[in-house]
Design brief:
Radius of gyration: 23 Å
Structural class: mainly alpha
Strand order of the largest sheet: 1-2-4-3
Number of strands: 4
Order of helices and strands: HHHHHEHEEEHHHHHHHHH
Shape: globular
Strand content: under 5%
Distance between the termini: 59 Å
Number of helices: 15
Length: about 425
């Protein structure tokens, strides 16, 4: 069994690296072609940024593989031996907290490099060292308090129910829904300052747009996203009465009113088509499959990781180590469903405001976020939750018959 698990994980990492290598080669070749969507200088810059990101992903994947070998061959058994706590639920909390903290520390240099070297080089990051440290401390405190409580609850379920994986799935699924409900009102404000939108004319237009789609919101807010990053974004957050419209301050500076409304119209399309509920259902199905698999692991799997058979901490650690493989295998199906939903949301956003305004907004977002408009088909198949931008623009009426025309049309928004 140990050989089988090792080979499966090796093939998983190898394929991820292969996809990244193919993407790097594709983008490296495409960056010398005629620029589309972006300005020529931005097009070249976006390509280099994409290549740098994928190189980091390759190194990160290799480090994660080394971590996996460490935990499988020695680490989990070592933790089991040194944590001398009789209460199994408490031991599980301590075990998993240390396990997650160790992985976090090993992978932290990649986060630091991306925030303070790569993103600053390409003009994205405004992150200060002080703010970064404060963010990490806040996240760690939240995890130690609430994450530990969740781990303790799962351990208690495992210890008290024979078919624990069914009750465990229901509990975790309920926690995920609850977090989505409270995120915009209780969690997000811990990291960002929320301010009621001051532009009354824009606010009224947004509220009128929401009324047409039947959405009732708790309010329209802006957040100080620019203190960390220059990228543009907006979202509808929350479930039930906690729903609110959230606009990045960077977005307000770059899009005009009609473009902004078109982007929000797109997001309202997701609400109108019940995409949020569909995503929750898909996530629940994937979670159910994972719990069914990891709730019925044979003894040979625990032997392969040199850990006590059926122990709550062993099951959770093995779940955390192996679940990325299952998630990766389900990415194509999830991506296919998501891309279809994005086309439908574009259609709704275009009809609610105008297709041209949505198209120009998408172009500006790509320009400001330095989103390279071309990708390898295999990379799109696995990783794209949104359709390629050129295809989205064609659906919105920008019929690019050749690259030169695409470049000319993209310059219409400047």
């Amino acid at each position: 069994m140990i050989l089988t698990i090792g080979i499966i994980y090796f093939l998983y990492v190898l394929f991820k690296v292969y996809i990244s290598v193919m993407e790097i080669g594709y983008v490296a070749k495409a960056k010398n072609q005629t620029a589309v969507i972006l300005k020529p200088s931005s097009y070249f810059k976006a390509a280099n940024y994409k290549i740098s990101k994928e190189r980091i992903e390759i190194i990160s994947a290799l480090v994660e593989y080394i971590l996996f070998i460490f935990w499988m061959g020695f680490g989990l058994h070592f933790l089991e031996e040194i944590i001398d706590i009789q209460n199994m639920a408490i031991k599980t909390v301590v075990f998993i907290d240390i396990f997650i903290a160790a992985n976090y520390i090993v992978m932290l240099p990649f986060t630091i490099y991306e925030k303070f070297v790569l993103d600053k080089k390409y003009g994205f990051s405004n992150m200060s060292v002080k703010l970064f440290i404060i963010d990490q401390i806040k996240a760690a405190v939240l995890f130690l308090i609430f994450g530990s409580l969740i781990i303790w609850a799962i351990a208690k379920i495992m210890l008290n129910f024979s078919n624990w994986w069914i009750f465990g799935f229901l509990f975790i699924f309920a926690v995920i829904i609850f977090i989505n409900m409270i995120y915009p009102t209780l969690i997000a404000p811990i990291f960002n300052k929320f301010t009621v939108l001051e532009d009354e004319e824009l606010k009224d237009s947004i509220e009128d747009l929401m009324k047409k789609s039947g959405l009732k919101s708790e309010g329209v807010y802006t957040i100080d996203a620019s203190k960390r990053d220059n990228r543009l974004n907006a979202y509808f957050g929350g479930l039930g009465k906690s729903k609110r419209v959230v606009l990045f301050d960077t977005l307000l500076k770059k899009l005009d009113k009609k473009e902004l409304l078109a982007v929000l119209g797109h997001e309202l399309g997701h609400y109108k088509h019940k995409d949020i509920l569909k995503n929750i259902f898909m996530m629940g199905m994937m979670l159910f499959v994972m719990f069914a698999i990891f709730g019925n692991l044979p003894k040979s799997v625990f032997d392969a990781f040199h850990i006590q058979n059926g122990s709550p901490y062993g099951i959770i650690a093995i779940f955390l180590l192996l679940s990325p493989i299952i998630t990766f295998l389900m990415l194509p199906l999830m991506g296919l469903v998501s891309r279809k939903a994005e086309y439908e949301a574009d259609e709704y956003g275009g009809e609610s405001v105008s297709k041209r305004d949505l198209a120009t907004a998408l172009m500006k977002l790509a320009e400001e976020n330095k989103s390279f408009p071309r990708s390898h088909p295999l990379y799109i198949f696995f990783y794209f939750t949104h359709p390629p931008l050129l295809e989205r623009l064609k659906r919105l009426g920008y019929d690019f018959t050749n690259e030169e025309e695409a470049m000319e049309k993209s310059w219409e928004i400047k």
